[in-house]
Each structure stands twice: as C-alpha cells, then as structure tokens.
Write a structure and sequence with these properties.
alpha/beta; Rossmann fold; Alpha-Beta Plaits; six-stranded mixed beta sheet; 11 helices
Length: about 300
Amino acid sequence: MNEYVLRTYGLTKTYSNKAVVDNVNMTIKKGDIYGFIGKNGAGKTTFIRMITGLVAPKNGQIEMFSQKAEKGLCEARRRLGCIIEMPALYLNMTAAGNMEHRRKLLGIPDKDCIKNVLNTVGLSDAGKKKVKNYSLGMKQRLGIAIALLGNPDFLILDEPINGLDPAGIVEIRDLLIRLNQEKGITILISSHILGELSKLVTCYGVICNGQLIEEFSAKELEVRCKNHLRIRVDNVKKASCVLETIIGTTNYDVQQDNLIRLYEFFDKAGVITTELAKNDVVVEEIFQAGQDLEDYFIKLMGGVASAEFTKS
C-alpha cells in the first residue's frame, strides 16, 4: 500500500474573486521527488503557501501524513521543512549564527544538529564568513540547511535553483538527490528549469492558470517524449505479430485507439507499411513522433515557447 505524504482535495484560493489556485487535487507519495511545473503566475507559490499554512484556502482540504483535522495538520507540519521563494537569512551573521537563531525559534535542544546539518549541505568549512559575502549557491544551501533543522520528513522548495550558475545548480541537484536517497526525505520542488528537473524528479505535476492539469511519473514522461514511429492500424493483434515475426522487433508498446509506438526503424516507415499491408493490416497513419522536454510541456499547457521555461 502506498503511503502518502501529501494529498489535496479541491484546494482553491481566490483573490478579488479570481481563482489563483483552482480545485487542485495533488498526490505525493512517500519517497517522491515531485517536480511542480508552471509558468510565473500559474499558482505554484500560492499553492505552496497553503500547504505550509501561511495562507488559508478558500475551499478544499489538505491531508498531510494522513492528518486532515486542523490540530492533526498542525502537528503534521512539524515534519515539514520549506523555502518559499528566497531563503530568509541574516546577512551579517555567519552560517552557524543563522542556524543557531533558527534552532532557538524551533525549540530544538540539541546544539550538535547545527554542525551535522551544515556538514550535510557542504557548509561546514564556512567558518566566520558572513552570509552577505556568500555566493548565491551558498545562500541556497544555507537556506536548505535551515529547512533541514528538526529532521523533516517532507521538504518543500520553491525555485531553489533560480539564478544559480551551472556549478551551483549541480551542487543543489546532487544535495537533493542525497537527501532523498540517503535520508528518505520526500521533496516537492517547483522550478521552470525543465532540464534540471528531469535529472532528479520521480514524478511531475503541471499547473496552468491555477489548475493542476496532469500528474505523471518520470518514466511516463520519458516514454511520451521518446522518439518513435506512431502507427495507427485497424488490427493491433495482427500488427504486433508482423512486427515481431517479420520486422523482428519487440521494441514497441500498444496504446489506446489501435495505436502502436515503435521505438526503432525510424527510417523504415515505408517498409513497415508494406509488410503490414501484405498481412492484411490497414495502416491508417504512420509518422515519426517525439519531442524534447520543453516542447512537451509547452504543448501540454497550450502555450507557445516562452523564456520562462529553460532546458538547463
């Protein structure tokens, strides 16, 4: 049985009678790295603010760690760490000073947790250097360190790699993968840098104009974007037999509506059509399909290419 960290039911938030988040039903399983995708203004940050308790929803319900009631949800949020937009840091303090201030606010008695968490995010050698002199990547890692105080089971990060240089992006990506795989932390990460998300997330949720239009796994996305011959026939069973016995391939799958996706022989469409016809299979359409990640998401959201989405 799947254990859910977060589920929302019809979650809605309105401002000036306009739904900024509109009837969102999201599901995040334990162990997921969930990529939350949407253009600027799509409703990502407002949704995250509702999940973390910073904003009250207009309608709908939040379930976190199987808790729905207000008291239980408040307790469940104690298992949550988050960064919304930019981490709130005291620039004239050191990393340890920022961590100590946060530790006291949270009422965590163990001072050793600061050293342990700074080591986890690669800031154990920062010493007396003040945060105002940190690179953006170091600030983001410190923000994640603060979010990790209290050993959260669920980490929510709003655009954590926005503005970072390539080296900084790799550092944050590797850190998140380690937190997920070694510490078992479930992660919700919003970003518009699609190429980087594809390197670490296990599932996606796509939001457009406040509505969550689809959720799917990383494996499902790989299949959807993978180059293939799209073949629609009148008899899938006969066509499958021809592909395996005559063409000599099992590298295909069968979709709904008599559709076959063949993942090789891209330059042999004519040969495949001929062999199918010889065996009394009517080919209604055949063409090469597949697209890159950016194009797929733009098409999914019904928009045109935008600078808001980048591949890497």
